[in-house]
Amino acid sequence: MSEPIKARNLSAQLHYRAAGNPPTTLASSAISNCFPGLEFDLRNLWRRLFQGILLHEADNLVVAAEDPGFRKLVGHRLIFVEECPMFIELRGPTKPGGADVLLTGSGNGVAALEWSNAMASVLERFKGTKDKVRCRFTKNPAWNPIGPMESSSAQLMTVRMHLNNLFYTGPDGEQAVINDTVVLPGELTQSLCSPWQNDYRECACYYWAASRPDFVNVEQTGPGKGTGNNWLAKDVEHKEYVVDSAVNQSKLWTYDELFRDWQRRLSFIVGGRDAEE
Amino acid sequence: MTLDSCAARLAPSATQLFRLSAPTSEHFHVYETDVGSHVLLPDGNRIFDLDGETARELTALQGAPANAVVEYLSELGIDPLQLIDDEPIADPPVKALSLAVAQKCNLGCAYCYAQGGAFGGPSMAMPVETALRAVDMLFAEAIPGDRVNLAFMGGEPLIARQVIHEATKRAVQLARQMDVVATFSITTNGTLVTPADAEFFEAHGFAVTVSLDGVGQVHDLLRPSKGGQGSFDRIMARIQPLLGLQHSMQVSVRTTVTPTNLALKATLDYFVEAGFHSVGFSPLLNSPTGDGEMGHKHLELMLEQMVECGEEFERRMAAGDRYPFNNMVNAMREIHRGTHRPYPCGAGAGYLGVSASGDLSACHRFVGDEEGALGSVTSGIDRERQKRWLSERHVHRQEPCKSCWARHMCGGGCHHEVIHRGRPACDYIRGWLHYCLSAYSRLIAVRPDYFGQRATQILE
Questions:
Q1: Which entry of A28, A226, B95, B248 is 20 to 30 Å from B368 by CA?
Q2: A213 inside domain
Q3: What are the pLDDT digits (tens) for B257-286?
Q4: A81 & A150 share domain
Q5: What pLDDT shows up at residue B64?
C-alpha cells in the first residue's frame, strides 16, 4: 500500500480530507451546502432520464441517441411526456401597461421547462414500474424552439420509452446516491462555469473560484491577522493584497489573459500556497 | 484474498477474541487481518486501512494522553470530529410503537421477561380504542414522506387478532391520507398462526418474527406450553403458509440463546433450509427468575458458535451466495455505513412500548415497569421523564462504556438488561464486534459489490 492510511467505510470516506485539499472539499463544509449550483449542475441528471436518448440539460432537445434505434430522434424536440408539456408559453407585455402577448422576440414564444419540475409528476407515477412512458416528439428535426402553434398533434409523433432510475438501488433498496449509469464521470460538473468563461472572473466575490482559494500565500502576522495575495495578482512575490478595483487593473490578470492562458497564469494552490512548477 | 485462503484461515477462538478486543484505548481500536492492518475510530466509527508502520505507531499510543493521539491522527489527515457529544437528544418524534395487544401467552417459557406474558400482573387484553389511540399518536407528528413502524407484541399478540386488524386498518388509512410510509411488524410464538393470518401479513408487508429457540426437543424444552407440552412441531406446521407466501412479507427467526441451546450453526442452517428470510441470535442476559441466564463461560461458547456461523457467512458471500445470518448481515451493513450512536436502540426516544392499558414505556420490555414509564396514550409522552431517561441512558454516562472503543457501536447495551442485571456480556459483545470488523475488512476486499462499491475503487 503506497499511502499510510486509506479511508475504508462510508463514514471514514465522508469525513476524510485528502492531503492538500481545502476544507471546502468535505461534504459538510462544501460550498454546495449554501449554493448547490456552485458545486454540481444537477440539470445533467435528467439528460438520461429516458433510456437510449440524451437530452440537452436545459432544453427539450434530443442531442444524441445512445441506442442506435433512436437515431431518428436526434435533433427532434420532446414536446409532451404523457399529458405534461415540456415547454411553457411566454406571455406578457412588451412595454409597461402593454397588452398580454406571445413574446416571440427569442425562442418562438416558448421556453423549455426545467426538467426536474416538468418531469416530477411523471417520475412519481412511473417510479418502480417497468411501464413505458408515452413521449411525443416533433415529427421533424427542430433545432430551434418550436412555438405553441407548431406543437399541434399533427406535427408530433409518439414514441414509448423506458425511464432510467435516477438513484442507485443497492442491497437496502433505493439510496440517496445518484445512479452512476445516469451521469458519467465529469458530467455533473461539465456545465458549470469554466476558467475560459467570463463568470470565472466576473463573480464579485470569486465564488466560482471556490475550489481555488481567493486569498493565497497567506502568512500570519499576528493573532487573527495575516497578509497574502489576491489570487489574480500578477506579482505574488510581495505579500500584499491587491484590491480588485479600477485603479489596480494593471496589477491583476485581465479577462483576456486568463481566457488565453489561464493554466500558465494561475498555479495550483497546494496547502494554501502557489505550488512550485 | 481468494476463496481458498478464506477457507484455509483458522477461525479465532473466543479466548483469542477476548484478548484481541480488550479495551486498550478509548480513541482507537487497531486490528489485523490477512488483508492488512486496520483501525476503527469510535469518533464516527470510521474505519481506515493502515500500512504496517502506521499500525505499529498507533498501537504504541495505547494509554497515551488524548492530545498525543489526536496529534498523531491529525498528521495522518484524520481530524477529530466529536460526532457524538454528551448532549442527550431532545424531544425526539415518535417513529415506532409496539403494542402489547395481549398481555397473556399460551406458552410458559421460564426465561421470559414478560413472565408468562402478563409481565407479573393479571392477564390483560388491549381494548381496540386504546390501540387506535396509539396509532393516532404514532401519526400525530408525522409529515409527508416520513416512515413509521407499528409493531405488535405481547404476550402472544395473535391472541388479540382483532385488535391487530383494527390497528393496522387505521394505520393504513392514516398513511394514505398523510402520505406517510407505514411498516408493520409482529413478534409471535407461532402457535396460533392461521392461513388467513398469512394472507393478512402478506397483504400489509409485515416483518414477522417467530421465536424459535432451536430444533425439535431443544426448542420444546425452552418454549413449552403452559401445560408443559412441546411446541416445535405445532409451530412449524402452523407457519408453513407464511413461509410459502413471502413476497412483500418477511418471516424471520429470533433465537434466544441460553446455556441449553448453544448449537447455533445447526439451528441457523435448519431454519435457513426451512425457508425463513433470516435468522438471528440473542443471548439471554436477564430473566426474571434467573433461569437460563448466560454466564461468562456460556458467552464464550456462544461467541465461538457465532464466529462459526460468521465464517460460513464469509465463505458464502465470497462465493457470491446468500446466507441470511441476521446478526452478520446487520453488522456488515452498520459497519460499512459507520453508524454511530449514543444509545443502543431507539427505546425511550423514537420507539416506545404501549401496554394493554395504554401506558407508554421505553420499550416492549418495560411494560408495567416503573423504571421505564414514560406517560400514556391519553396524556401523551411524559417529556420530563423522557428527558431524564435520555440523559441518564446516554452511553457517555455509562461505566465502563466511556472508555471502551466499541461504545458507539454497542451504545451501552440493552437498557432493560443493563438496568436489571448490569453488563455481564461486554467481553462477548466486543469479541463479536472485533470478529465482525475483521470479517468486514476481508469481505470488502473480495465482495466490494456487496457493499455497493465498484471493484475498481477497492482493489488497487
A1: B95
A2: yes
A3: 999 999 999 999 999 999 999 999 999 999
A4: yes
A5: 93
Q: What is the pLDDT of residue B126?
A: 97
What confidence score (pLDDT) does residue A266 get? 84
CB contact under 8 A, B49 and A6: yes
Mind listing the pLDDT tens digit for each residue in A158-177? 999 999 988 888 766 777 78
User: Which grid coordinates are listed for B55?
Assistant: 499500525
B335 touches A at CB < 8 Å: yes
Kindly tell me if the per-residue pLDDT of A209 is higher than 60. Answer: no
Q: Is the separation of the CB atoms in B104 and B156 below 8 Å?
A: yes
Contact A9 B77 (CB under 8 A): no
Residues A228, A139 within the same domain: no
Half-sphere exposure of B188 (CA within 13 A, CB side): 27
B51, B248, B326, best to mutate vs chain A, most A CBs in 10 Å = B51
Three-state secondary structure string covering A90-159: CEECCCCCCCCEECCCCHHHEEECCHHHHHHHHHHHHCCCCCCEEEEEECCCCCCCCCHHHHCHHHEEEE
| pLDDT tens per residue across span B332-341 | 999 999 999 9
Whether A124 and A248 share a structural domain: no
List of chain B residues whose C-beta atoms are within 8 Å of the C-beta of residue A184: none
Same-domain check for residues A48 and A170: yes
Kindly state the helix (H) or strand (E) to which residue A6 belongs, with its residue range.
Answer: strand A5-7
Q: Are residues A67 and A166 in the same domain?
A: yes
**Cβ–Cβ of B45/A1 closer than 8 Å?**
no
Chain B interface mutation, best of A11, A26, A181, highest count of B Cβ atoms under 10 Å? A11
Q: Which residue of A has its CA nearest to B450?
A: A171
Which residue in chain B is spatially nearest to A175 when comparing CA positions?
B452
- pTM, two decimal places: 0.78
C-beta separation of A192 from A170 below 8 A: no
* pLDDT at residue number A172: 63
Q: Residue A65: which domain range?
A: 42-89+108-178
* Cβ pair B31, B431 in contact under 8 A: no
Of A1, A9, A17, the CB nearest to B36: A1
In a domain, A189, yes or no: no
- Of A112 and A172, the structure prediction assigns the larger pLDDT to A112
Nearest to A115 by CA among A72, A78, A149, A156: A78
- Based on the domain organization, do A68 and A164 belong to the same domain? yes
Domains in chain A: how many in total? Answer: 2
Residues of chain A contacting residue B326, judged by C-beta atoms under 8 Å apart: none
- A250 CB within 8 Å of a chain B CB: no
